[in-house]
Amino acid sequence: MKINIFYIFSKIYLLSIISLNLILNIFSFIYLNAKFTYSISIILSIIGIYYLFRLKNSKKLIRYIFIFLLFPIGLYFSLNVIVSIINTPYFKEIFSLTTNLYLLYIVNISYYFVPSLLLMMAYKYEFLSSIGDNKKIKVPEIITFIFEILIFIIPSLIVLSQVFQFELTSILATSGVLAAVIGFGLQANLSNMLSGIFVNIERPFNQDDWITIDQHTGLVIDVTWRSTRLRTWENTEVTIPNEVVANAVIVNWSNNDKSQLSEGYRIFTTLHFHPKHDPQHISQLIKNALKKVKPADGRSQLDFQWVKFIDVNEYGLKFLISFDCIDRMQNNSQKNIVLLEIHKTLSHSGINMSAGKMFTQLDNDVGLNALQTVRIKDDFEPVKASEFNPYNESIKNKVLLNKIPIFMSLKENEIQELANNCKRVNFKSDDFIINQGDPGNSLFIIADGVVGVHINNKSKEMILVAKLGVGDFFGEMSLMTGEPRSANIIAESPTVTLVVEKDIIKKIFNNNPEVFDYVSSVLASRKLTLDKSKTDSVENGKKIKNIAEDLKKAIINFLS
Predict the structure, then answer these.
(1) Helix/strand/coil for 435
(2) Which end of the chain is less enclosed by CB atoms within 10 A, N or C?
(3) Distance CA 401, CA 408 (A)
(4) Facing residues of 318 across strands?
(5) Res. 220: pLDDT tops 50
(6) Model confidence band, residue 135 (pLDDT cutoffs 50, 70, 90)
(7) Are 321 and 403 members of one domain?
């Protein structure tokens, strides 16, 4: 906590005036007549001292009344009482002439300083303290210091002229020459100081704002006399001279227009694709990926999702993609999450995110074969006319089934038999694919589109808990055990699903008993993950084993 010298000086000065008035009134009450007048003055002085200490904790209206009405009246009344007591014959007899003159000088000086003292108190209580409580708004020290100097230098000049009879003309002239000499010697610092004043007047940023100044991005720590300090991503402190700040282009990441646009700022990035792709379908794939994104800043979804096909150049089809972020600290994390989701969606469709320059042969890395994420020609059916995305809808059933954990233990011919007997079901946006609590005996695999997973709470309100896209699946527990549906699944875009029915897998599983152990283990792990168990890894292992045993019995019973 920083100490404000001007505030402490003001409070001590006001306390001294009231205390001196109290002491002299007690003296006068004892030794002089007019005891009623002095007793009233003593009571008022005690009340004044009490409220001077209690002012900070008083209500705002009470502070206003005391600072702007009662204290001015009371202080000037006290000064007049002090003068009248000093001029009494009895007082002159007790104290020397010099002491009386010093006291009168102090009283005369105080007449001119009372407004400044009260103004400093008001500035401290009604401005500095209230803003100090609001962590988002902070006043730079340079502004506070200039204001405090001004409210005390004006009465000081008046006192020199009226009380001590100095010629202000000569004082100001001498000060001007001295200021010119000092200014010439401190030209750079004065330039920074004046720039700092103008920066604070214009207020292009506040403390705790994220800004960029000349390639330096960071959180504003403070604006001092000569510089602005930033805390960067690297957790280092950058000090930028205010002269540079005043002449630089400043980007304020925290000053957003929530009413006209949206909360937060927008991140833009570009992607390129092979020129033989269909731009309309590429746009739809990217939009579906953006719908699935769980933002790094804690929201359930991106509020701003924007995709445009903007150019064709030596890198192929150029797309501009934009999305929002409300926390500048999460900027790179937000980009990472969005690009990972886009990459996942495009890879599923067999599309590379960058085509490379058209005159360059871009060979595949050998390591890509280990990932099995690159689509090959055999993964696709012949292209069919459809309202859905042909990239995804043309992917063979077998390719989709191979990625589902509960089918990974099946043999090649069993997967093919399963693929031949599956059916594809299309849904429009906002269609309910399944309803929570309904009976079910089928598994859905998303071939194209995006769906939302909603759970009914105790108030029967639907809460969005997740989004699923191409390659994701749901309904496995109902397929294998006949359990009721545990959530509502709603299509968020035109969606194509591959539906696996109980009758299809019943024959395959009954002819392959060892599959039950593997499937029950996979379902147990997935169930435990969905339940968000907080037990340690050892307990998780035991719990998975127990759940797997129960699920195995349920699966065998359901498929028998």
Answers:
(1) coil
(2) N
(3) 8
(4) 272, 311
(5) yes
(6) very low
(7) no
CA distance 478 to 486: 9
The encoded tokens of residue 442 equal: 């089928």
Percent of the residues in the chain that have a pLDDT greater than 90, as a whole number: 15
What is the gyration radius of the CA atoms in the chain, in angstroms?
39
First to last CA, the chain: 75
In the chain, the number of structural domains is: 4
User: CB-based burial of residue 145 (10 Å sphere; 0-12 exposed, 13-18 middle, 19+ buried)?
Assistant: middle
Lookup result for tokens 């000499």: 181
Q: Residue 183: inside a domain, yes or no?
A: no
**Cβ contact 495:427 at 8 Å:** yes
Whether 207 and 349 share a structural domain: no
Nearest one of 551, 555, 509, 517 to 411, comparing CA atoms = 509
What pLDDT was estimated at residue 357? 58
Distance CA 13, CA 452 (A): 68
pLDDT of residue 322: 93
Contact 250, 204 (CB under 8 A): yes
Whether 539 has a pLDDT exceeding 60, the answer reads: no
CA distance 373 to 393: 17
455 Cβ contact partners less than 8 Å away, ≥ 6 residues apart: 436, 462, 463, 465, 486, 487, 488
Question: The tokens 């589902």 sit on which residue?
Answer: 404
Q: Residue 69 gets which letter from DSSP? A: I
Helices (H), 240-385: 242-247, 279-292, 331-348, 368-371
Mark which of 109, 141, 166 sits at the end of a domain. 166
Q: Residue 398 carries which side chain, given as an amino acid letter?
A: K
Assigned domain for 190 exists: no
Q: Is the pTM of this model over 0.90?
A: no
Quote the tokens at residue 426: 């299309």
Q: Which ranges in 237-388 belong to alpha helices (H)? A: 242-247, 279-292, 331-348, 368-371
Nearest Cα to 414, choosing from 300, 289, 500, 355? 500
Query: What is the C-alpha to C-alpha distance for residues 419 and 430, in angstroms, rounded to an integer?
Result: 27
Domain span at residue 427 reads 390-559
Two structure tokens written together for 423: 């059916």
Q: Which helix (H) or strand (E) holds 38?
A: helix 35-54
- Going across the sheet that includes 488-491, the strands are 432-434, 488-491, 451-456, 462-468
Helices (H), 351-396: 368-371, 390-393
Which pLDDT belongs to residue 422? 87
